[in-house]
Amino acid sequence: MSITAELTTAELEQMLANRKKAERAKEEKEKAKYEEDRDKMVEKVLLTASALFRELGEFKTYCHIEMDKQAVKLSEYGKVRSNSKGGFSVTNSDDTMRITRRRDTEPVWDERSGKAVELI
């Protein structure tokens, strides 16, 4: 004979209520842990993205300054084509690395541009 057969209905209901309460507490604890870990991960990723955004902005500014200097040197040296729109490439002596500065004069259109024209 099992132990549950000896218990009254009220005692069985109390045991079931206690078990459900323990399961809910465990689920809530696991949920809280998950949410805490998730929030920490989101914060770390966004902080890293923010730092990279700043660094890339500084790098872009640095590149513009250096390429402006190089453009002046190239024009003094006479290596800029007469029909140049401001774009040029610089290659190292070993011909293994190249930096290209593009100055696109033709705008690039996408589907939003077409929709804008339709709305006008």
UniProtKB/TrEMBL annotation:
Residues 5-44 form a coiled coil. It holds the Pfam family DUF3164. Keywords: Coiled coil. This is DUF3164 family protein.
